[in-house]
Write a structure and sequence with these properties.
Layout: E1 2-7, H1 11-21, E2 27-33, H2 36-46, E3 50-54, H3 62-71, E4 79-84, H4 92-98, E5 102-105, H5 110-121, H6 129-141, H7 156-166, H8 171-178, H9 182-196, H10 201-211
Parallel strand pairs: 1-2, 1-3, 3-4, 4-5
Organism: Streptomyces viridochromogenes (strain DSM 40736 / JCM 4977 / BCRC 1201 / Tue 494)
GO biological process, one term: regulation of DNA-templated transcription
Protein name: Two-component system regulatory protein
Amino acid sequence: MIRVLLVDDQPLIRSGFRALLDLEDDVEVVAEAADGEEGLALVREQRPNVALIDIRMPVMDGIEATRRIAADPSLAGVHVVMLTNYGMDEYVFEALRAGAAGFLVKDIVPEDLLHAVRVAARGEALLAPSITRKLIHRYVTQPPPTTSAALEELTSREREAVALAARGLSNDQIAGHMVISPMTAKTHINRAMTKLHAHDRAQLVVLAYESGLVTPRSS
């Protein structure tokens, strides 16, 4: 059972999402919150698998709530998905750095919402090709800093797997490109996340661009 927490200051959004999620046999909405502070407290209390958190809220915004969740080792199993009213909210990159697994636009169709919750629960990133393209554009206009020393700890296969993940490929697709099993692809990604201290797959992709491991031309 996938346990979901809804955090949004708009009651209509919360009730709409709950109505959709509650129809699924494998999903349970365990609680709702109207601001980041209340949401953070409920995350610690309920330990959901997925927390759908609005970026902009009173008291504590979603980015700060996400940052605190990511910083707490006891909440490592909580996957945060940010909610935004826009396809490319100005705070999306900051949210990914804070530890969000990805983001959803609030007018998402029901099928995509359900898919996103299940993907996030598996620990995968919600980075659509359009978002990957915008990540690339960002690093074309803002060159990355010097390559981190931590990158030297990655094996050549781990680097290859991360580069493919940065293009938005799933573990199965990475496995196909590298001619390895999906489990081995997942192992490469997980080891790279550990070595680069990435909270999740989405943050790994951001770090890959920021560190220079992946360049816009190579993606």
